[in-house]
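Purpose: get a first structural picture of the assembly so the mutagenesis plan has something to point at.
Setup: four entries, given in the order below. No constraints added.
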Amino acid sequence: MLTVDQTNGLAEMFRLLGEPNRLSIVASCLDGPLSVGAITSRLGLSQSLVSHHLRLLRAARLLKAGRRGKRIFYSIADWHVREMLTNMIEHLAEPHEHDEEGIMETGANP
Amino acid sequence: MLTVDQTNGLAEMFRLLGEPNRLSIVASCLDGPLSVGAITSRLGLSQSLVSHHLRLLRAARLLKAGRRGKRIFYSIADWHVREMLTNMIEHLAEPHEHDEEGIMETGANP
DNA sequence: GGAACATATGAACACGTGTTCATAGGTTAC
DNA sequence: GTAACCTATGAACACGTGTTCATATGTTCC
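Result (structure tokens, whole complex):
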């Protein structure tokens, strides 16, 4: 179904988005390019921490960086990333099917 | 844009899928319910490891469990999870836009 | 040139977590 | 009942990683 490389690549992407601060950074870039300072103040994180995270996100091609003057603006890398994120976020709003949390019987068992 | 709870919840989900073995387990369940033993032998992981991961995935409502005889079958929890996963996997196949990896100029800068 | 601002980088630390080993719990067949 | 099978659980450990602090790099304005 999935090759090992595909699995590792996909997992790596998930892993990066699996950290709340990093996810916040990426999510905040959905509206449009943001400078490091803007992200820092908007999320209330330290400048150093934001920069470290940005490096990882940029290396993984989730974000891309563009300099304008002395500031550097980060934005969603491409259409794919944007699509995936908006898809995931859409799913947050939709209703949840509520199954039992324990083990349940699966169909017929004669 | 996103509440703190939404962010944490989404990140938690990403975090779980961010581990290759766990992602493999979930992905293998896309075809249909699989017993623990089936997953174990299919992925070549230890039974204990698979069980530990399954507990996390079940707790996060990514997978659901159903007993049939002495075996317990795990399957994708609901339509949402299935949709998200298939969406992500679809994006793997589609072409990538290739941008520079470093910092690039962003539009006009007089 | 230098000062002020914006971002990046490196080291160090605390903490979570993926894995293994051994063992327990539960289910069917005899 | 017991034996054989399947799954879950707990402890222990090695390892990665998120965060902070201090410092370096780079850019604009004087």
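Chain A touches chain B through 59 residues (CB under 8 Å).
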